[in-house]
Inverse folding.
């Protein structure tokens, strides 16, 4: 996985991979996992001023709680844009009509497991009834979600 994951502040999923999973709606959403941040022409998160510290249990728990809330919102009433930075909220609003049906098509969440830190963000493996995915979630200095990415796990 490339280190540029965290530099991109978008909610993204590769449509071609989701089209193969049963029950997932089709949509055309770019895949930033495989492209450098510069090609996205989106604002990057500020570079950390100190070396990234290994993830700690409270940080992981906070990230998992926020991720569960985002997934529940996507599968339910819709995104709570107040939890995102302004720029990420604007990007999610543009993609919500494509992303929400994809996430709903995954089915119920079975498990969420922390995999590893990705810079200052966290990578989780989320297993749904119909799809296994990887999610990256990161926060800014104001504790707003500044990075949110997902993709299917390649088998």
């Amino acid at each position: 996985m490339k280190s540029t994951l965290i530099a991109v502040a978008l909610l993204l999923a590769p449509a071609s991979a989701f089209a193969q999973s049963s029950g997932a709606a089709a949509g055309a959403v770019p895949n930033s996992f495989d492209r450098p941040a510069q090609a996205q022409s989106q604002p990057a998160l500020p570079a950390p001023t100190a070396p990234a510290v290994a993830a700690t249990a409270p940080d992981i728990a906070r990230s998992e709680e926020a991720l569960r809330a985002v997934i529940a919102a996507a599968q339910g009433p819709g995104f709570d844009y107040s939890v995102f930075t302004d720029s990420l909220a604007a990007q999610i609003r543009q993609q919500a009509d494509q992303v929400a049906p994809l996430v709903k098509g995954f089915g119920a969440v079975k498990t969420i497991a922390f995999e590893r830190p990705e810079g200052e963000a966290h990578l989780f493996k989320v297993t749904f009834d119909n799809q296994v995915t990887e999610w990256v979630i990161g926060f800014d200095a104001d504790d707003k979600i500044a990075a949110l990415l997902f993709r299917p796990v390649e088998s």
